[in-house]
């Protein structure tokens, strides 16, 4: 089936539209179908907002994909299969599909599962990825923090509600970027206080975007933060 389209996983950076690569820009321009995560209520996804400055919707097929937010495996399987089939239909028509995702497509990205399921259901599809600047790179730049130098050890860790694991992660590395930190921010502040490292931590939401917020840690306890928030701890 040589006339199949190619599926691209396109990293479009952490928030600032100028931080997409030249290659990502080219693929956006050349792909007739732009796939993007879509919220159920119809509002634009973060990745969509990043790239919309480069897209003329009247010249593209905009394929909004809703991804299930549930732990029910039956629902997950059904909705994911439906989503992959929507993309497959465009590929079967011979159209290249550029799936845009914030950050990098192979680092904590929705595209990873899309790629695996497409390979499983339609192994004949050619899949290519275009790397993107991740939020931890953007945060290092915006905060002026060198994440690693010489023989330093750096880790990227999803924050979770486990005091000992979070404490050990900080103790074992010279720098740690904790993603998904919003839901456990109070616990993380407690860990930092106990390690006497509160002054070594920074928290930023939607880094490099026009909605970026760099937080003062003293005002974070009890605060409800947005999902796209991370913490950098640099000893």
UniProtKB/TrEMBL annotation:
**MF-aspect GO terms:** precorrin-2 C20-methyltransferase activity
Q: Tell me where on the tree of life, at the top rank, the source sits.
A: Bacteria
| Keyword set, alphabetical order | Cobalamin biosynthesis, Methyltransferase, S-adenosyl-L-methionine, Transferase
Listed Pfam families: TP_methylase
Family annotation (InterPro entries): 4pyrrol_Mease, 4pyrrol_Methylase_sf, 4pyrrole_Mease_sub1, 4pyrrole_Mease_sub2, CobI/CbiL, CobI/CbiL/CobIJ_dom
List the pathway annotation.
Cofactor biosynthesis; adenosylcobalamin biosynthesis
One GO-annotated biological process of the protein: methylation
Q: What SUPFAM superfamilies does the database record attribute to this sequence?
A: Tetrapyrrole methylase
Q: What is its EC number?
A: 2.1.1.130
Domain Tetrapyrrole methylase, chain residue ranges per copy:
6-220
According to its UniProt record, which protein family does this protein belong to? Belongs to the precorrin methyltransferase family.
* Entry protein name: Precorrin-2 C(20)-methyltransferase
Q: Which organism is it from?
A: Peribacillus butanolivorans
């Amino acid at each position: 089936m040589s006339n199949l389209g190619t599926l691209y996983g396109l990293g479009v950076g952490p928030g600032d539209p100028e931080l997409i690569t030249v290659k990502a820009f080219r693929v956006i321009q050349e792909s007739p179908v732009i796939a993007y995560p879509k919220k159920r209520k119809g509002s634009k996804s973060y990745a969509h907002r990043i790239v919309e400055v480069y897209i003329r919707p009247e010249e593209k097929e905009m394929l909004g994909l809703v991804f299930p937010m549930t732990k029910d495996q039956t629902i997950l399987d059904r909705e994911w299969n439906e989503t992959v089939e929507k993309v497959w239909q465009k590929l079967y028509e011979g159209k290249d599909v550029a799936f845009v995702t914030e950050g990098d497509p192979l680092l904590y990205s929705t595209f990873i599962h899309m790629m695996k399921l497409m390979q499983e259901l339609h192994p004949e599809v050619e899949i290519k990825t275009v790397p993107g600047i991740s939020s931890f790179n953007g945060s290092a730049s915006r905060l002026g923090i060198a994440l690693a130098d010489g023989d330093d050890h750096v880790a990227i860790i999803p924050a979770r509600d486990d005091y000992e694991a979070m404490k050990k992660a900080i103790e074992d590395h010279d720098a740690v970027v904790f993603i998904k930190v919003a839901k456990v921010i109070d616990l993380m502040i407690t860990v930092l206080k106990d390690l006497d490292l509160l002054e070594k931590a920074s928290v930023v939401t939607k880094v490099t975007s026009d909605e970026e917020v760099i937080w003062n840690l003293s005002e974070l306890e009890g605060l409800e933060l947005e999902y796209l928030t991370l913490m950098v701890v640099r000893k």
